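User: Modeling request: complex.
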Amino acid sequence: MYRRDSILLSAAVGIVGVTFGVLAETSGLTMAQAIAMSAFVFTGTSQFAAVIVIASGGTEIAAVISGLVLALRNAFYGPSVASLFRPSLAAKLSSAHFVIDETTAMATAQTSPENARRAFWTTAAWLYALWNLGTAVGVIAGRVIANPDAWGLDAAFPAAFVALIIPHLQTTQGRLAALGGAVISIGIFPFTSPGIPVLASVAGVAVGAIWIKVHQ
Amino acid sequence: MSWTAITVLALGAYTAKALGVLMGSGRYAEKIRPAASLVPAAVFAGLIMILSLDSGEGSLAPDPRLGGVAVAAFLSWRKSPFIVVVVAAMATTAALRF
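Assistant: Request completed. Predicted assembly structure:
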């Protein structure tokens, strides 16, 4: 079951990759730079955040900081998936590049450790290939399409996360954490710079964690 | 965007991922696992809000993206495949802007 889901998810992420490529191209990145970001940064929200700052006239330093701030959240996924990797340091360091939103979401949605491991790597392989392919297609499309928003490309990314969050809303603590994250990100938006609201939404975890403590 | 900026971003992103995986192996991980498992729910919710409401000009404002996201929520709840969810959201947003 995870196989079909992994491939369909990766195909959807590939479409989001197209939107990234379009955005990168219209923000002045070269094809090589856009693909280098997808291959080596390989965490979509950070890539979007950095390029959006550039597109809206921000400095390079602001772009890098907002990308890094968002990339920090991947550190919080490690503990959920580290047990799926072989215990050697080399295996862990080479697997780490693929610990992102989607691979973590697919792995943690499985019920057995073996399926979790397979779901992680199936998703990692397809997603990496299609994300980079999508980026390249997007850069080419960006040279042709005059107005990407007219195609609804900016809705692809939030829609993908709507699909990804559903399995996490099955428990009360999950729903409370999500509610907390949503309220915090919107609440502090007017007072912070780009990238900070999403990072701060991590604090929504506290709402769910308190609920677990109270009901233990 | 310069190659320096892209390199710094790549190294920083990898460092964050690697730290999480290395932290995840010890006794410390067992302690934080219940809370860590809630991180995707909280962060995805924040992402959805900002990505569908941020006008790009320093304010939050509803626009046709929100219609696409609403359709995505309905289809996800109905357990439609991911690709259907994403394409339907794009189509809805594009139609609302037409």
